[in-house]
Amino acid sequence: MLKVSNITKYYGDFKAVDNLSFTVNKGEIFGLLGVNGAGKTTTFRMIMNLISPTSGKITFNGKKIDYDVTDKIGFLTEERSLLTKLTVKEQILFYGALKSLDEDVILKRLDNLLKRFGIEEYKDRKINTLSKGNQQKVQFISAIINEPELLILDEPFSGLDPINIELFKSVILELKEKGTSIIFSSHRMDHVELFCEKLVILVKGKSVIDGYLKDIKKDYKIKKIKIEGNVKLSELKKIDGVISVSKTAFSYEITIKDESYVKKVFDYVKTKENITKFVLEEPSLEEIFVSKVGDAYGK
Predict the structure, then answer these.
(1) Count of CA atoms in the C-beta half-sphere (13 A) of 100
(2) Which residues of 79-113 are buried (b: 16+ CB within 10 A; e: fewer)?
(3) How many CA atoms are closer than 13 Å to the CA of 270, on its beta-carbon side?
(4) What is the pLDDT of residue 291?
(5) pLDDT of res. 183
(6) Inter-residue contact 87 to 137 (CB < 8 Å)
(7) What are the domain boundaries of the chain?
(8) How far apart are CA 84 and CA 248, in angstroms?
(9) The CATH number of the domain covering residues in 2-217
(10) What is the DSSP code (8-state) at residue 222?
C-alpha cells in the first residue's frame, strides 16, 4: 500500500503541493487529476523519491521510499523519456539494469511484451525510427519490465489509436488483477472513469475533491435528463429547477438543480405525445471536474 501523509512541497516561496494525503491499496487504480501546474508531477517525483517533501511522509508497504523500494516502482512519464538513438532492446536493457534485473530476465520479459504489443520486429530498431504510438509502447514496456508493485501512469494513452488504447487498457487491468497498485493520471476524464475507483483532484497543489468515484458522483447535486420526443425547448426552460436545456440532433438534454426536480420535468413530459426516451443520468466526471476546478480557481 502506498500512503501519502500530509505532504507539502515548497520551491522557494512557491507552494507546489499543499498538505496532500491519500492511500493506494494493493490492486487498486487511483486517479490523481488536475489541470497543468496543479502539482501532479511534483507529487509523482516525491513518490519516486526524486525530490523530498518539505513536510509530510510517503511510505510504500510501511517503508520509506529509497532505492530498494524504487526498484519495485514503474513510472510512465507524460514526456518522452526514451534514449532515441538506442535500439528498443538496448533501451529496455538499460531500464531493466536500473531496476536491478539480470539481463536474461530482461530479455525474456522483453520478448513476451514485444509480442503482446505486436512490435516484435522492432526489437533491434532504433527508437527514433518508430512512430509516436510505437514509441509509447516501448515507453510503457520500460515502465513495467520490472513487474512493478506500484505503477505510475501519466497520460499513458498519448499518441495511441483506439485499437491500441484497448490493448493498453487490457494490460493495465491485468496488472491490477495481479495486485499492482496503480496511480493513473489523464486529462481524458472518460479514461479515468473506466479505471479509477478512488481519485483526488488537485487545484494549485491542494485537494478539492477526494474519495470514491461513485460517492463523488452521488454527492454532486446537479443531474441531467435526456428526452426524445415532441417537447418544446421554451417550455422546458420554464420548469422550476431547470438550469439549462440544450438540443441535439435527436434529443433534449435538461440540466436540473438536483434529483428532487425530476418529477416536475416528468409531469410536463407525460402530457406530451410520442415520448420515446426519458432518462435520468449521473453527471460525468468531466462535468464535475470542470465545475469543481472552476469554482476553486474562482476563489
Answers:
(1) 8
(2) eeebeeebbbbebbbebbeebebeeeebbebbeeb
(3) 6
(4) 83
(5) 97
(6) no
(7) 2-217, 221-282
(8) 46
(9) 3.40.50.300
(10) -
Closest to 181 measured CA to CA, from 203, 192, 196: 196
d(CA 194, CA 120): 29
pLDDT at residue 298 in the model: 52
3-state secondary structure 32-60: EEECCCCCHHHHHHHHCCCCCCCEEEEEE
- What CA–CA distances, in Å, run from 50 to 11, 56, 66, 153? 14, 15, 10, 16
Tens digits of residue pLDDT in 162-196: 999 999 999 999 999 999 999 999 888 888 988 89
Residue 280, classed as helix, strand or coil, is strand
Hunting for cell 514485444 — which residue is that?
A: 114
Return the C-alpha cell found at 258. 438536483
Question: Which residue ranges of the chain lie beneath pLDDT 50?
Answer: none
List C-alpha distances in Å: 148 to 41, 56, 136, 143, 207.
Answer: 19, 24, 18, 8, 27
Q: Which three cell numbers stand for residue 54?
A: 518539505
Cell 510517503: give the residue: 58
Evaluated on CA atoms 281, 283, 286, 290, the torsion sign reads: positive
Cell numbers found for residue 223:
443531474
Q: Which CATH superfamily is domain 221-282 in?
A: YebC, transcriptional regulation domain (3.30.70.980)
The C-alpha cell at 68 is: 530498494
Residue 229: partners with Cβ closer than 8 Å, 6 or more residues away: 269, 272, 273, 274, 275, 276, 277
